[in-house]
Amino acid sequence: MKVIFYLLKIILFPLYGLYYAVIFLRNWLFDAGFIKSISPKVLTINVGNLSLGGTGKTPHVEYLVRLLSDKYKVSTLSRGYGRKTKGFLLADEQATAQTIGDEPMQYYLKFKDKINVVVCENRVEGVDEIQKKFADNQIVILDDAFQHRKIAPHLNLLLSDYNKTFYEDSLVPFGRLRDIRQSAKRADVVIITKCPRQITEQEKENIRREVWAYTKAEVSVFFSKISYQEITSYASKNNFDATKNIGVLTAIAKPEAFIKYLSDKPLKIEKNFDFPDHHAFSRKDIDKVLGESNESLQIITTEKDMVKLKPQLSENEIKRFFYVPIEIEIENKTAFDALINAEINTFILPSK
User: Fold this and answer.
1) Do the Cβ atoms of 239 and 296 come closer than 8 Å?
2) Secondary structure element (H or E) that encloses residue 284, with its range
């Protein structure tokens, strides 16, 4: 097996070298000013990463929404990955995961009375349209725009998974990075996500030193943890029964942590249904899941996946489906919140 592994590395190395060169050249053209980046007139805060996914951008965007939406007019702007539409779209009551993407749909279901949820592939165009439609909008939270170099956010938050930090990872196909490590120098703040409950001060200091080898001098480095909420349901009555067998259904980048969380609880996991990240569930998929389980089996999934499943479930079926909302806890929350608010104050945003 080792021989095959090394042969594959040799075969794939030219592809790796070409990809690295293309990304390096593209970043250099932006950094040198040959390709212009636009800094919008409205305050923009980006939540991004260097990897292909799985760093927890969605709950961190939601954290910012909770922090800011009571004081300011806020919009979120996402690409809308996996949607079957194009261009600028504002989420409304007719929106679905197919029209705006799963993460934006989740934002809309949670915060539709507080914020504008927008999708647009072109982030510059998206911000411009937001400001045209909502003259009182004060902040745009960019979901996953770290590689979208045509827009220059006022505050760039870089997320990196504790279990595979960007400085330990490699570009695809040898790793999960979609951008080179040196791009971390564009970060104004680095958040190490999915940290264990117990992490020593020495380990945090070691991580900071590794991060600072790639970033601007000693940028602020924060550590966040996932906080799983109660198992819940979209049914009129949450009838989850912990004594019954369950099936775990996921279509996320790194389902291991979610599965481990459920496995550590006193639950009877009978079956796992694993789909690719951002999988667009079809009726055939649902029939397959239900067909491979007995009628008493309860299906537990992630909140992001439930957003896609819900519109396709009948009233009786939805009683069998449950999901686990997640939030994040930021260590040294007071300092993090103060940093965000200081950026807002620097931009001289009037509060409501």
Assistant:
1) no
2) helix 283-291
